Amino acid sequence: MIDRRIIADIKDSLDFFPVVSIIGPRQVGKTTLAKHIISQFEKPTLYLDLEIQSDLFKLNDAELFLSQHSDYLVVIDEVQIKKELYPLIRGLVDQHRVPSRFLLLGSASPELIRDSSESLAGRIAIISYFQLGLLKFLIRFLKTICG
What we know:
Helix content: 40-55%
Distance between the termini: 25 Å
Strand content: 15-25%
Number of helices: 7
Mean pLDDT: 85
Largest sheet: 5 strands, parallel
């Protein structure tokens, strides 16, 4: 079940910021959350999963590819795989600053947070998505000790 509060926070952020990043541990549900949000989005969307080779290949000339989709909400899953995108995204946002340009998903590493914060300062809302991971951990723990 997806927390309605975090959906509202993400939608509010997308209404204001050109870039929104959802960070959290692996397998916490960031992709599911993002797909739920874009399924209700009015603006055209494009989803790229950088763990899929064909999606990663599309970004060989990332500037050209992303420029061609400037009217889309571009969702980039596992963005930490290609962190050199941050300065490019900053430049693209500065050329055409509108809300909901990019939705970035990534694991919550200190490097990811630092890279995105430094490169996209003033352009990005960072939303931490940890609660589902904690809930899953607690359920596994309780199953272990209760049999």
